[in-house]
Design brief:
By secondary structure, this protein is mainly β. Helices cover about 10% and strands about 25% of the residues. The chain contains three helices and 14 strands.
Length: about 250
């Protein structure tokens, strides 16, 4: 389904686009309806998890999807916006370089991680997941912002180089192994087990950051600054990351 990321002059040409699936050929309009005539703002009204690569390499186009999607949703996205009102399979938002992805459901393994043919995770961009996220997610993140309201699986955030991550749910095993830099907000105490606790200075930037993030996702979801405890580094001298722990 990566053809959706191409530039079309009008919606009728997109609807008449012929694609191959196995040994069969279909017109786009035979698979799903595209609402409206604005080719830069595509709305897929009914999707199924057989539809892989929606938004792959997306550049300056907005796509809204109702239903579940297959693998590689928004993989290596460049710019624009993807909104999914359903669940995504593995490799969603893997290797994205810009733009914004909103998943109002669950997402599979390797979410926001390395692509299945590369060694680079999120280069930049914004990712929001309302539900749970699978294993090996957000690996080798270089820059950007990730918000996970649900739980995240094992081997998440490994080899993180920079960026900011908020995880409201529980965190699986082997978290942030090999991390170099970056900022993580979490409620899970086991994350800071080997970190050093900072002093009780006031963190002005977090109030601004939470306000900006709340504006992006359209809801207030964070606690006040007074409920944050900052930790930095750990027994590994190459770790220059910081963790903000929400006091419950």
């Amino acid at each position: 389904m990566s053809f959706l990321s191409n530039s079309y002059k009008d919606a009728s040409r997109l609807s008449s686009q012929i694609i191959s699936y196995g040994n069969k050929q279909f017109k786009v309009k035979e698979l799903f309806n595209i609402k409206g005539s604005d080719i830069k703002n595509i709305i897929i009204q009914s999707s199924v998890d057989l539809m892989d690569n929606i938004g792959k390499g997306l550049n300056n186009i907005n796509i809204t999807v109702h239903g579940n999607v297959g693998y590689s949703f928004g993989e290596q996205m460049l710019s624009g916006k993807l909104m999914l009102y359903g669940d995504a399979l593995d490799y969603a938002a893997s290797g994205i370089k810009g733009g914004s992805i909103f998943i109002y459901g669950n997402s599979g393994d390797y979410t926001g991680g390395k692509t299945n043919h590369g060694n680079v995770g999120i280069v930049d961009g914004f990712l929001y997941v309302k539900g749970n996220v699978g294993n090996n997610s957000i690996e080798r993140m270089r820059r950007g912002n990730v918000i996970v309201e649900g739980n995240i699986g094992d081997y998440a955030c490994n080899d993180m180089l920079s960026g900011t991550i908020i995880i409201k749910g529980k965190i699986g095993k082997i978290f942030a192994e090999g991390i170099k830099r970056g900022t993580i907000f979490t409620k899970d105490k086991k994350v800071v087990k080997e970190y050093n606790r900072s002093n009780d200075a006031e963190y002005n930037f977090t109030k601004f950051y939470f306000k900006e993030i709340s504006n992006v996702i359209g809801q207030k979801m964070f606690l006040e600054n007074k409920n944050l405890i900052r930790y930095y580094g750990n027994t590994n001298s190459s770790n220059l990351s910081e963790v903000f722990l929400f006091k419950l």
